[in-house]
Write a structure and sequence with these properties.
globular, Cytochrome Bc1 Complex, Chain D, domain 2, single chain, two-stranded antiparallel ribbon, two-stranded antiparallel sheet, binds heme C
Length: 500
């Protein structure tokens, strides 16, 4: 009993007294208009009844809860139990219950499906997806520890597995169809029954308060073999990585690629990861995959006017895209990344221009690209994840989920993505994330121009003058550096490069 009192008074402190009073009152006693007490099904602290498919509400973001109550009311999320209950709540009552439940501490996961094989299959799909079927990694949106992000994407860790299965089926059946940009509708439609069971078992078994102690640094390995995404070359599957010193280096390279803040910290000056722009851990065709790059070097680059080795090419992405420092040639960081790339390219012919290399080239648009049109595209298709301010979103544990597109935490002015041509090609093929190919070419150009018309860290090759730096490195119609946008000369107010 004393426990209950402690939890409630904590909620009072975090949610604010009036809020929590009204919320707690509704949860325990229901509403004047006839909504029953939420506690009778979801429990006093929102722990839910996992085995009965009644979701845990504790610790879910308040805005997400309000959005779901609205969807139950309008039946864009059709549910015969929650429809009358949500309809009976007034707007202030929704805010109050949402505030109350979001302030509760979610219970630790109870593993209701103790099947290690199923959980392992779910873990692999959650961390890696299955791009051969167009299924992205669940954790790319639901966050590395499945904790979700503020308001946009709900936490899945410790959620009821019966409930998760029911939601994925509801999207497949079209009875839940208010998900933003149709993201979950599209993803659920690609999952088969085994995959649904596996991800549900996995997420329900995950703890809420961070990774379990002693958790492996690497994500679990997928069992399936990789199939080509475009016709052409397919990199070997994860489970082909040998269990020896070579294999260790491959795994280190993959870890650096996925989480450079942790595995290559001295060389990183922003919150991005290599895989943010080379999606699917450098495997996905059309997203500058590592296997296609590896066999294309050494090569002459006009950017620095000499023949670059593969290692030197990667140094460039550290210096510009990661806004950091180039790791020394031969350092463990570059050797590991090169080993990972070599592994992915196994069997590919040297010097071949493999289909799927780089980002698919986009012709110049019919109408010149336009900032104002791009802003509209951005608001409708991108702000959901990258934020109206372009700064992205992090999980409650601080790890980046949606990367920053401009500002001090993004790539610097020297990066390839700062060239509207590259950005448009990347965006057309890969964004909105998991729905690549849905924007028109014109929309991709317009939104790329909008993204690349914002201030970001200075070009490390800055000569002391913006005009001079533009003339030397950014002299082309698809670079905004040095041009005036909304009364500001881009590059004139950049923070120095190389700071996190
Ligand atoms: C009779 C049992 C019952 C009662 C009482 C009840 N709920 Fe529910 N609730 C459910 C069930 C079952 C679901 C799962 C619906 C589905 O499968 O879509 C649910 C789902 C929800 C969800 C969606 C959670 C998510 O993760 O998307 C929210 C929010 C919610 N309920 C809020 C409330 C609130 C607030 C109250 C009290 C005013 C309440 N519920 C009362 C049974 C109940
Ligand atoms: C592209 C981003 C994205 C990816 C990838 C993604 N999700 Fe989601 N997911 C969302 C969003 C956004 C919502 C909230 C939908 C809403 O508001 O109705 C959501 C909601 C959910 C929910 C409902 C949770 C609840 O409390 O009701 C489940 C279950 C879910 N996702 C499972 C998955 C699984 C399993 C995968 C991987 C196979 C996955 N998601 C991949 C964006 C994503
Ligand atoms: C559903 C969420 C979501 C939406 C919507 C979305 N993105 Fe992304 N975006 C992501 C994720 C996740 C990544 C990183 C991919 C990865 O690591 O696998 C990303 C990466 C990027 C990157 C490269 C990394 C960086 O920080 O520069 C750019 C550029 C980008 N997105 C632009 C856009 C644009 C423009 C739109 C709208 C047309 C858009 N995105 C819509 C989730 C989203
Ligand atoms: C902000 C986005 C971004 C980030 C982050 C990023 N890159 Fe790149 N990378 C690019 C772009 C843009 C290109 C040029 C693609 C093209 O030419 O089509 C590129 C090219 C490459 C190439 C050469 C590809 C080829 O086919 O020639 C390699 C290798 C590479 N990057 C490795 C990395 C590594 C390793 C990291 C992390 C340390 C990283 N990148 C981080 C955007 C990024």
């Amino acid at each position: 009993m004393r426990f209950g009192i402690v939890i409630v008074s904590l909620a009072l402190l975090t949610a604010g007294p009036a809020f929590a009073d009204a919320g707690l009152n509704l949860v325990m006693h229901g509403s004047k208009n006839g909504a029953p007490p939420c506690s009778s099904c979801h429990g006093e602290t929102g722990a839910g009844q996992p085995a009965a498919g009644i979701p845990r509400l504790a610790g879910l973001d308040a805005r997400y809860i309000v959005r779901q109550l609205e969807s139950f009311t309008s039946s864009t999320r059709a549910n015969s139990v929650m429809h009358p209950i949500a309809s009976a709540l007034t707007a202030p009552e929704r805010t109050a219950v949402a505030g109350y439940f979001s302030g509760q501490t979610p219970p630790r996961a109870k593993d209701t499906v103790p099947d290690p094989k199923l959980i392992a299959a779910g873990a692999a799909l959650a961390a890696r997806g299955d791009w051969s079927k167009g299924i992205p990694a669940c954790k790319s949106c639901h966050a590395p520890d499945a904790l979700g992000t503020d308001g946009t994407v709900p936490r899945l860790a410790a959620q009821s597995s019966e409930y998760i299965v029911a939601q994925l089926r509801a999207w497949q059946a079209g009875t839940r169809h208010d998900d933003p940009l149709g993201l979950m509708t599209a993803i659920a439609s690609k999952l088969d029954a085994d995959q649904v069971a596996a991800v549900a078992a996995y997420f329900s078994s995950q703890p809420v308060n961070g990774a379990p102690i002693g958790a492996p640094a690497s994500d679990p390995v997928a069992e399936e073999t990789t199939k080509p995404v475009l016709q052409g070359f397919a990199p070997p599957p994860e489970n082909a990585i040998p269990n020896d010193d070579f294999g260790k280096m491959v795994r280190l390279g993959e870890n650096i690629f996925q989480n450079p803040q942790r595995f290559a910290a001295p060389y990183v000056g922003n919150t991005l990861s290599c895989s943010n722009c080379h999606i699917g851990r450098g495997r996905l065709a059309g997203s500058a995959p590592l296997w296609a790059a590896y066999v294309a070097y050494p090569a002459y680059r006009s950017k620095n006017k000499h023949v670059n080795t593969f290692e030197e090419r990667m140094q460039g992405c550290f210096k510009f895209s990661m806004n950091g420092k180039a790791p020394p040639l031969g350092s463990e960081t570059l050797v590991a990344l090169e080993t990972y790339s070599y592994f992915l390219a196994k069997g590919a012919p040297t010097g071949a221009d493999l289909p799927g290399r780089g980002y698919p080239n986009l012709q110049m648009p019919a109408r010149p690209f336009d900032y104002a049109r791009g802003q509209k595209v951005y608001e409708q298709n991108c702000a959901l994840c990258h934020g109206t301010d372009g700064q992205g979103q992090a999980a409650p544990d601080g790890r980046t989920v949606f990367p920053a597109l401009w500002g001090p935490h993004s790539f610097n002015w020297g990066a390839g993505m700062g060239n509207i041509k590259n950005a448009a090609a990347f965006i057309k093929a890969n964004m909105p994330f998991s729905r690549g190919g849905t924007l028109s070419d014109q929309q991709a150009w317009d939104v790329a121009a909008f993204v690349d018309s914002h201030e970001r860290p200075q070009d490390p090759r800055f000569t002391g003058s913006v005009a001079d730096t533009r003339a030397k490195y950014h002299d082309g119609a698809t670079w905004m550096y040095g041009k005036t946008v909304n009364g500001i000369v881009l590059g004139a107010h950049s923070v120095p490069p190389g700071k996190r």
